[in-house]
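User: quick one, fold this
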Amino acid sequence: MTKRAGHDRLMIQMVNSLNKEKPIVRLRAFRAIDDPASCALFVRGHEQVLTSIGVHKVTSSKNEWPQNPAAFVIIVESLDGAKVYGGARVHVSGGSELLPIEEATGSMDAGIFELVWKYAQQGTGEICGLWNSREIAGYGIGSIFLTRAAVAISTQIGLVSLFALCASYTVGMAESVGYHKETSIGNNGTFYYPKLDLVATSMLHKDIRTLSSANAADREAILTIRESQNLVRTEKLRGKAIEIHYETKIPNLEAWDLAATVAHARKNFASGETDASGLNIL
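Assistant:
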């Protein structure tokens, strides 16, 4: 190995390795169909996390979403893009798949389909597939910081509301960014999902534009990310700090057509084309 090659290899290892005292990562948003390679890294990482906790069938982890033109992705990655540490997605109602919450709960309560359509007419979606690797656990990536970013980018897509299906330990976090429990479906809003010994809560955010129901700190952070789009912030959670390079301006949005997506949702709802055969969770 030449001296230059050895130096380059060392530099790559330094970029890929995390400084545990203060990790430095990039948080990047894109449309799924525009970046298949990053979607593949997302899928691999999400599957590893789910398998490690004994969950093997979750609708948000199904691998059809990279081809869904109404799926948008946020990944947390090393600055060179070689390693993905976590991610989340925003699926828009009217894409090539039902929203994950519809697939997850439709066989238990068909009312979810009418509820989603009620909000889809103005533009709705769902935050789903939230995860982080063990390597970066404890810094808030797989919880509040990705959730804030997902709410922030949703107005770029044209949405006015968002659904989520939350594990019990993420309900409070969802409420902090403006969600509330949607009690009109399931057992007062809850379902046994993804396993009979786990309870998931259906949640709805009705005001992602003004964030009137979010707490003050989260509202300020979301609006800052939304307005600046590309910025560097040092985020702190429970005594730990992480430097996040936000790149939340979604590329190629000129090719995105929300009106056509809503029209597709209308067609599916009118024709009754709903299939809740799958099993999703924030």
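User: anything notable?
Assistant: Helices lie at 3-16, 36-52, 100-105, 111-120, 141-157, 171-176, 216-228, 258-271.
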